Amino acid sequence: MSEFENKVALITGTTGIALATARRLAQGGAAIVACGIDRAANAAMQESFVKARANALVQTVDVSVADEVRDVVAAGVKRFGGIDIIVNSAAIHPYGTATTTDWETWNKAMTVNVGSIYLTAHFGIPEMIKRGGGAIVNVASVQGFACQQNVAAYATTKGAIHTLTRSLALDYAAAGIRVNSVSPGSIRTPILEKAARGDNGSDADVEEAYRRFGAAHPLGRIGEPEEVAELIAFLCSSKAGFCTGADYRIDGGLTAGIGVK
Length: 261
What we know:
Elements: E1 8-12, H1 16-27, E2 31-36, H2 39-51, E3 56-60, H3 66-80, E4 85-88, H4 103-130, E5 134-139, H5 152-172, E6 177-184, H6 190-197, H7 206-215, H8 225-236, E7 247-250
Parallel strand pairs: 1-2, 1-4, 2-3, 4-5, 5-6, 6-7
């Protein structure tokens, strides 16, 4: 029997870590309900699952809008019978300080990065309880522990995810729902590519930027989405049955030391 056979996983986001996680859970036998705001990425994910003959439903959803999250949960339940796993990976990464970040951008970061986790819990947990429990994994960041300059909104949301993870874990442990978070360092994702391009756009040497980012990690490289997906899959599995309310760093040793030489 496959590790996720007869399980249904709701995943927010359809690129980067979310895409790798959806593929990993599907390989383990899970039915996938994925949602994101990028229509092209959604279509590409759906096509890849059709080719792989995997059970998947991919919908275009703004995860910061309550009615849209409610509807995708309902669609997943209707198609596959319930929800057993939730992986919250959708995020935006605005740059700016408290004085250069406008109120609209600040609020959007909060509602997408943190609010979406509340919404998937609000609508998804009752369905998980009907199935006898399940697992939730929230994708946070090392920036929730130690942040760069000029990322006030993003870093704040990632710290909030750590706290919300602990709160959910305590509130729903008795219902058999385990809740953990993962905190990646630099991972080869569209968000990291945007950082690598900076102001240079199509003229940027992205691979050189990745080498520079990787050099800051003791392991000497950036991580791959599939590596994060493996950790998420473990936390969603029965092998992690005694793991809840914790954060797991997957950062190549980035936060193990201090930057003074």
